[in-house]
Specification:
Oligomer: single chain
Helix content: 25-40%
Strand content: 25-35%
Order of helices and strands: HEEEHEEHHE
Shape: globular
Largest sheet: 4 strands, antiparallel
Number of strands: 6
């Protein structure tokens, strides 16, 4: 018969390994989340906002970036409006704290910030970073 510890190790491996968008996660994997809340000027044109979004999406090419999402914030009629004036949000998932440093210092990041973001912002963005264990929902499991 199998030793109980072997079964435990196999079960742990089976339930803890995932692949999402080409990046391999386990239940013990940690990532860095970089979240930026933006208040776009009311007079910003659709073209300005398109440039902001496309510029942000281009940051996915920076080494260590797992994913980038950016979009307009919203409040449904059934929920309180918690946006506090923030019109857009950028979320960047990175492989490590070292990757966050590479991202922050990368020339493309500086260029996008200068050319695509700052010109259309009504005020300084709010940015926070945190480390998190990855927990995938049922729809993303193998």
């Amino acid at each position: 018969p199998y030793q109980p510890w072997i079964i435990s190790v196999l079960l742990l491996y089976i339930i803890s390994s995932h692949t999402y968008q080409g990046f391999s996660y386990s239940s013990m994997s940690t990532v860095i989340e970089h979240i930026v809340l933006l208040k776009v000027k009311p007079e910003a044109s659709d073209e300005d906002i398109k440039k902001l979004i496309e510029g942000a999406q281009s940051l996915r090419t920076i080494p260590g970036v797992i994913s980038i999402t950016v979009g307009s914030t919203f409040a449904e009629e059934w929920m309180p409006d918690r946006r506090n004036g923030h019109t857009h949000t950028l979320s960047c998932r990175l492989q490590s704290k070292e990757a966050l440093r590479v991202y922050q210092d990368h020339p493309l990041h500086a260029q996008v910030k200068k050319e695509c973001m700052l010109p259309v912002l009504a005020e300084k963005p709010i940015a926070v970073d945190y480390e998190s264990v990855v927990v995938l929902g049922e729809s993303t499991e193998k």
